[in-house]
Specification:
alpha+beta, 2 domains, four-stranded antiparallel β-sheet, three-stranded mixed β-sheet
Length: 179
């Protein structure tokens, strides 16, 4: 269900919409920030699941099938600057993650094979940190710090991978509270 935009009484540059998340049908709040009232306004949008959940900080992830060659993943890392890809099954269930370091390890481990012969699943690690999008931020902070991780894969209600949360995003959210 979509609610028409309405102006906040405290900030005339914000508009808020309510819609359902396409991945999990969770009601979302969408905040549009408008820099100026001119037609050339830059609009930034941010989806929110609930205050204090990892779904509120989730960013889009790059998903690849388990059979994608490491040469394509390497090219993706180099051309886009991506730091990780999530390897998923045909039904979008996460199987693991691949980082540039994982690609290098796979190349070293399989030195007798060409990069085109190696596939995503051969370089993937379990990812370890997979959290439902409704997980409280405090739980994510504990997991990231206790397991010395830089990211968590975020899952929708159906167990499908829907995005990632990176430690720097969590830091950005908790830092103002800690000061």
């Amino acid at each position: 269900m979509t609610v028409p935009p309405r102006r906040s009484p405290t900030d005339q540059n914000l508009q808020r919409l309510v819609a359902d998340c396409p991945a999990c049908n969770t009601p979302l709040r969408l905040t549009l920030e408008i820099d100026s009232p001119t037609p050339s306004s830059r609009i930034g949008a941010r989806k929110e699941h609930s205050e204090g959940s990892v779904g509120a900080l989730m960013r889009p992830a790059t998903f690849v099938a388990e059979s994608v060659p490491l040469s394509e993943i390497s090219e993706l890392f180099v051309t886009t600057g991506a730091r990780l890809v999530v390897v998923v099954s045909p039904d979008q269930k996460p199987l693991g993650v691949v980082t540039p370091t994982h690609v290098l390890r796979a190349l070293k481990r399989h030195a007798d094979r060409k990069i085109d012969e190696l596939h995503a699943l051969e370089a993937a690690t379990s990812g370890g940190a997979m959290l439902p999008d409704s997980t409280p931020l405090s739980v994510a902070v504990k997991l990231l710090t206790d397991q010395d991780r830089d990211f968590c894969v975020i899952l929708g209600n159906d167990g499908r991978a829907v995005g990632v949360v990176v430690a720097t995003d969590v830091l950005d959210k908790v830092l103002p509270v800690a000061l």
